[in-house]
Specification:
This protein has about 375 residues and is mostly helical. It is about 65% helix and about 0% strand. The protein has helices at about 10-35, 40-65, 75-85, 90-105, 120-125, 150-155, 160-175, 180-205, 225-230, 235-240, 255-265, 280-300, 305-335, 345-370; strands at about 70, 270. The chain has a two-stranded antiparallel ribbon. Bound molecules: zinc ion (ZN) (2 copies). One zinc ion binds near residues 101, 207 and 240. It is found in: Membrane. Keywords: Coiled coil, Fatty acid biosynthesis, Fatty acid metabolism, Iron, Lipid biosynthesis, Lipid metabolism, Membrane, Oxidoreductase, Transmembrane, Transmembrane helix. It is a multi-pass membrane protein. It comes from Vibrio thalassae.
């Protein structure tokens, strides 16, 4: 393989990822066979894994990278410490990379972990060579975060925080339970490797494995299994199109504990201003994507042009109705926020939305039956 043109290897990262992986697999197994583990090892592994994971998902990702809600300082400090424990660089650096990823998704020259450069590259390869050297300290896309005291505190003390948490927590637990090596292996190495690779899966697997219900303009996929491993981040197709929504899994049955955490925090007064995309906009994206996917099937049918024209007309009517509902809903939210006593106007808007919802329901049913069986469009 010709590697002459490739940037130089970052030996610190290579050694670190390899070393922790060997400790987490060979080390943990070997020690387990000889000395064994207790339930305390596994319970603390789970707690530490959740602390790291949720600090990344609710903190680094949904709070700082995308500003989907505002958090109390207590929560911010917790995420800053948990993020350092997860050892994924500072929140400022992580968010900067992540914002570039969203802005230039799948662009092999600009997306720092472009899935189009292959699974290995998007998973871990991008961190093993000096691919990012030119823009490493460029945080111009995070000027807002540079004004956040907690973000800058963590950025300044990142190495200290990372060392104190990664050695301090396992050693402290080991001292309490009289098994320092066992806890360093399980809560230190194994937790770190699990936390790293499940997060990395979002850049790799979540861009190749799963469905695309909302858009096929980028490689991001929705995947329930990945959501289970990543505290809800597996609904990545939805996330890439609606990145400012604090939810990733929007259905009640979708596993998104990060969303549940943020919502719970809002009940406790620790989070506010939770952003949600209106259901009409979500539905619009879904319907457009269904049409996009169905095109191939439609054009294989006899009378394809005619069927397509009818479906396209139905689609436009449906989109117009969804936009109208969305507009009214926005008006309703705005008028509810204003202190003006416009109760009457609000009640009218509500009634209008309810009526439109009824016709929308019928229109939607007709359109879906046509798209599932396009022949009936011209019968
Ligand atoms: Zn992505
Ligand atoms: Zn994101």
């Amino acid at each position: 393989m010709n590697t002459a043109h490739k940037p130089s290897i970052i030996w610190l990262n290579v050694t670190f990822f390899l070393g922790t992986f060997i400790l987490a697999t060979v080390g943990v197994t070997w020690y387990g066979f000889i000395y064994g583990y207790t339930s305390a090892h596994w319970v603390w592994l789970l707690i530490a894994f959740m602390f790291c994971g949720m600090s990344i998902t609710a903190g680094y990702h949904r709070l700082w990278s995308h500003k989907t809600y505002e958090a109390h300082n207590f929560l911010k400090y917790l995420f800053a410490i948990g993020g350092a424990f997860a050892l994924q660089n500072s929140a400022l650096h992580w968010s900067s990379d992540h914002r570039v990823h969203h802005k230039h998704v799948d662009n092999n020259d600009k997306d720092p972990y472009s899935a189009k450069r292959g699974f290995w590259y998007s998973h871990i390869g991008w961190m093993l060579r000096e691919y990012q050297a030119a823009r490493y300290d460029d945080y111009r896309n995070c000027r807002d975060l540079q004004k956040d005291k907690v973000v800058m505190w963590q950025h300044k003390h990142y190495v200290t925080l990372a060392l104190v948490t990664n050695f301090g927590i396992p050693i402290l637990l080991g001292a309490i339970y009289s098994d320092i090596i066992g806890f360093v292996l399980v809560v230190g190495a194994l937790r770190l490797v699990l936390s790293h690779h499940t997060t990395f899966f979002i850049n790799s697997l979540a861009h190749v494995w799963g469905t695309q219900p909302y858009t096929s303009k980028n490689t991001a996929r929705d995947n329930g299994i990945l959501a289970f491993l990543t505290f809800g981040e597996g609904y990545h197709n939805f996330h890439h199109i609606f990145e400012h929504d604090y939810r990733n899994g929007i259905r009640w049955w979708q596993f998104d504990p990060t969303k549940w955490l943020i919502r719970s925090c809002s009940y406790l007064g620790l989070a506010k201003g939770l952003k949600r995309v209106s259901r009409y906009r979500i539905e619009k994206a879904r319907i457009l994507q269904t049409m996009q996917t169905a095109q191939g099937k439609i054009f294989q049918l006899p009378n394809a042009e005619q069927i397509h024209a009818v479906l396209e007309q139905e689609l436009q009517n449906l989109i117009a109705k969804l936009s109208e509902c969305d507009e009214l809903k926005t008006q309703l939210i705005k008028s509810a926020k204003s202190n003006v006593k416009e109760k009457y106007e609000q009640a009218l808007l509500r009634v209008k939305i309810e009526q439109l919802d009824l016709t929308l329901k019928e229109q939607r049913r007709r359109w879906y039956s046509m798209i599932n069986n396009p022949r009936i469009a011209i019968n």
